[in-house]
Structure formats: C-alpha cells, structure tokens
Amino acid sequence: MAEWLTALWRRIGAPPAIAVDAGIALVCYLATVAVPVKAAATAGWSLFALAAVASVPLVWRRRQPVLAAAVVGAGTVGLAVTGAQDFIPLPYGQLVATYTVAALCPPLWRALVMVATGVGVGVVVFSVLGVAPSIVATAVLPFVVAYAMGTGVLARRDRIAMLEERAGRLAEEREVAAVRERERIAREIHDIVAHSVSLMVVQAESGAVLATDRDKAQATFDAISATGREAVSQLDRALGVLRSDGATRHPLPGLADLPTLVDQARSAGLNADLTVRGTPRPVSADLAATVYRVVQEALTNAVKHADADRVSITVEWRRAELGVDVADDGHGPRTDSAAGGRGLVGMRERVRAFGGTLDTGPGERGGGFRVTARLPLHTGVEATGG
After folding, report:
1. Is 235 a member of any domain?
2. Are residue 106 and residue 226 in the same domain, yes or no?
3. Is the pLDDT of residue 32 over 70?
4. CA spacing 20 to 30 A to 366: which of 169, 225, 296, 330?
5. Is 147 among the domain residues?
6. How confident is the model over 171-226, as pLDDT tens digits?
7. Which H helix or E strand runs over 242?
8. How far is CA 43 from the centre of its chain?
9. Tens of pLDDT, residues 98-128
10. Same structural domain, 177 and 67
C-alpha cells in the first residue's frame, strides 16, 4: 500500500506550496472552532472571526513568515482575552507560525518572534486564565518544540545547500582539471609528433640521397626506425591516462634522456652538442620532463623551421634555479608556421607552470635562434625523473 501511494504521489507530482499552506490553514481553523456546541452558540461570530485571524494568514506563511506569525498571534491572544472559547485548546496556528519563522527567518527575527510569543503566552497565562506560574513551562513547551523542529529543518536545508555548493565547486574543479589534462596531453602529443616526424622526414630525405652508399643509407633508415619506435612509445605514455583499461603508465622522459635526444638530432644531420654545468640535484619527474620537452621542441624548430646546421644545448645547475639554453645557427622559426607557434606557446606554458620564465629570440650576435628557460629549484623535492 505504501509503495502504491508513493508511486501515485510521484505520478501526480507534489502539490503547489500555496495549496499545502491553504490546507494547513484550513486544518488549523477547524481545530480552533471545534469547541463544545454551547461555547459555539454563546460566542457568536467572534469565535469564527478570531479563529480566521489565527489561521488564515498561514496561507502566506512562506512569503511573509514574521507578519503571518504576528497576525496569527494577535488572533490567538484575542481568542483567550475575549473569552470566545470556554477553554483554550492548543494554539495550532501559532505553533505552525512559530515553526515557519524558525525554519525560514534569520536569527534576529527568530529571536524577536520568540520573545513576542513568550510575552503573549505570559499574558494569557497570568492575566486571562489566572493559572499558577508553574503552568507557564507547560504552556511554553509546545512552542519550544515547534521552534526546535523549525531550526532543525533550517540546519538541514543549510547543510544541503552547503553540500550542493561543494558538489558544484568540485564539479567545476574537476572540469578545470580535465581541461588542463587535455591541454597537457595535447602539448605532449604535439611535442612527440612534431619532433619525431621532423627527424624522420629529414632522415628519410638524406637516406634517399645516400642510396648509393648502402652502409650510410642503412644507418639512416635504422635511425628512422628507432625514432619511430621511440615516438610510438612516448605516445603510449602520453595517451595512457585516457585508457579505460588502467594501462600501466611508463616513466616520463627526463634529464637522463637528453643525450638520446641529442643523438637523434645528430642522426638528422645536426651538429649538436650537450653541455652540463654545475652539480646535478634531484628534481621532480614533471620538472625533468619539462626540461626534456623544452629541449625537444627547440631541436624540432631547429630541424624543421630554422634550417640550422649546428645546435648547442646547455643545462646549467645553479643554486636556486635550473637553466636551459638551446641556440642554433639557423634563421629561426617561420612566423607563418602554426605548428611552430603552438610549440613555443606550449613551451612557455610548461615553464610557467613551475614558476619559471622562457625567452625566445635571435642569438647573442643577432643570428640563429635561442631558447632560454629558467626553472626555480625547490628544496626537498624527491627526484624521480632526473
């Protein structure tokens, strides 16, 4: 039976609030006028009029809770003062009004209404009914219960609102984190594809020219194969977070992989050299991967856009920062290259994420192109990628 009633309620929907409040007002009115026939006959119309004042305003209790409570309280006191009833039943309308004020109003209004209610109860108990003071506690108790129920509902509603706000904030944070992760993956894929494909294209072109020298051609095509395999492996790492099967993520490339990166550039025909200054220290895997990607993108620009012959890579360990400098003797990346533009933007975003700076532009003597990154070193960082 209960399940059937629940299904029926869901099907027809909850009634409007005004209808619910009108029903409550009607019930309170009927409960107030349900007095012995003798009292109803001798009271005349005053009973029904004051009962209406003590109940009908409940129809607007949600929109004007304080005003409704004041009018209902005046009607309730009027019923007692005028003697419209032989006995004073529970003030149902005033109890509902007290509950509503406690559930909907701010603390100041709640306090004022409760003080006014206490004064009204005291007037009725002492001056009208002439009962003993010990009865005051019994008379006040129903209002205390109504007030407690209202504040309980208010606390529950505030908690629900707080949880909804927190859930919304967490959803926004998850969305922001997802966007950042997509951007990170996009940068990873761009760096991997742009670098590896550029090297493979240059190597393939040189391999075709060296077709008459089988040994050199074979070495070139072996380099192409190795570059392709490394690209596939790095793509697998970058896309591992998108897999639903929980694929194992391989370590990110780091500082220890820079010599391999330089060897790949040499296999593409660049005269590349790597210099490390200072004493290496432990760094996080993400910071090491950022250094690797900066060098990788700079080498890609040198091979693909700058037509460079020589590239110099310097990694300098300083007291509070790690410096990375990549300089070539080409003409710099083409300004009309969308890929090159995305690569420079990606490098700057990576470095900025660690609080560092990235400068790009002509070399010291106005020739070639130089990429200089400065990444702050924070003490107490455990190395996983250096």
Report:
1. yes
2. no
3. yes
4. 296
5. no
6. 888 888 777 767 776 766 766 666 666 666 666 666 555 556 666 666 766 677 67
7. none
8. 64
9. 888 988 888 888 888 888 887 777 777 666 6
10. no
With b meaning 16 or more CB within 10 Å and e meaning fewer, what string describes 218-255? eebeebbebbeebbeebeebbeeeeeeeeeeeeebbbb
- Of residues 295 and 285, the one with the higher pLDDT is 295
What kind and span of H or E run contains 209?
helix 135-209
Q: How far apart are CA 296 and CA 83, in angstroms?
A: 95
Name the token pair of 108. 């100041």
In a domain, 302, yes or no: yes
- Residue 77: CA atoms inside 13 Å, Cβ hemisphere, count? 17
Q: Is 113 helix (H, G, I), strand (E, B) or coil?
A: helix
Structural contact between residues 33 and 85, judged by C-beta atoms closer than 8 angstroms = no
Q: How far apart are CA 32 and CA 118, in angstroms?
A: 20
Q: Tell me if 274 sits within 8 A of 259, measured CB to CB.
A: yes
Please, are residues 100 and 61 in contact by the beta-carbon 8 Å criterion?
A: yes
Distance between CA 32 and CA 20 in Å, rounded?
18
Helix axes 107-123, 135-209, angle to 10 degrees: 170
| Cβ-Cβ contacts under 8 Å for 263 (sequence gap 6 or more) | none
Calpha distance 220→202 (Å, rounded):
10
